[in-house]
Amino acid sequence: MHMLVAIRRAVALALPAVAAAGLLAVPAQAAVAELDIVRHNVREGTFQRWFLTCPPDTSRHPHAEAACDLLTEVDGDLDWLATGSTGCSRELDPVHVNIRGTWRGRHKEFAHMYANACVLDRQAGPVVP
Length: 129
Prior knowledge:
- This protein has helices at 2-24, 64-73, 117-124; strands at residues 33-41, 46-54, 95-103, 106-114.
- It has 129 residues and is α+β, with helices and mostly antiparallel strands.
- It has one domain (29-124): Subtilisin Inhibitor (2-Layer Sandwich).
- A hairpin with a 2-residue loop joins β3 and β4.
- It is globular and about 40 Å long.
- It holds the Pfam family SSI.
């Protein structure tokens, strides 16, 4: 009799843990983008780094929503971040940007040297703050 009670108690105690484990085993919705962004202000010798995820729910990026919207418009084409006229001065104060990660399951890498912060902001903002 004691053995039967012990088995019932063990099953009763184990069921919530098994149920919880089953809930945790359900895969989360995959992120559209997971990008590691590094900005190097060459003259100053400073580095800044952000991690962008889209959707931006868990992103550690100051402009995540706007960055995700922009990347969605160009379907993750990071080369787009180095195009277009800027109207900026020709001052040389280089800023190097390196982006690595995934977009819709595709590996992405991007590296570009911008002439100055104005050019960077006009071409790559808000992806690169």
